[in-house]
Amino acid sequence: MSVPVEVRAPIGADQTAIVWSDGTTSEIPNELMRGYCPCAGCQGHSGQVRFRAGGNPTIDSIAEVGSYALSFQWGDGHDSGIYTFDFLKRLGDIAKTGGARGALSR
Length: 106
Ligand SMILES: [Zn+2]
Prior knowledge:
CATH class: Alpha Beta
Helix content: 10-25%
Number of domains: 1
Number of helices: 3
Order of helices and strands: EEEHHEEEEHE
Distance between the termini: 16 Å
Bound molecules: zinc ion
């Protein structure tokens, strides 16, 4: 599994760059990440994660969760989404292909 070796989320930027241990980089618009917040509050308890528009996409802080995920605190204080590395990689792939907003598995 790839793990992040560097996360770049400059204040004021509208996307986050994650450099992975396999040498690839994911550039993910913050709005896309916020819309795909995988927490139960945003998604309910269905198995799939769908894009939900309307959340505040400003990143206030980023924390590592164990050694498998990141969590983000968004501009409106929301911070319950656990973004696994694999999930973030798939968000990077969605961003690369133009941001088609289908459902993702967690
Ligand atoms: Zn959420």
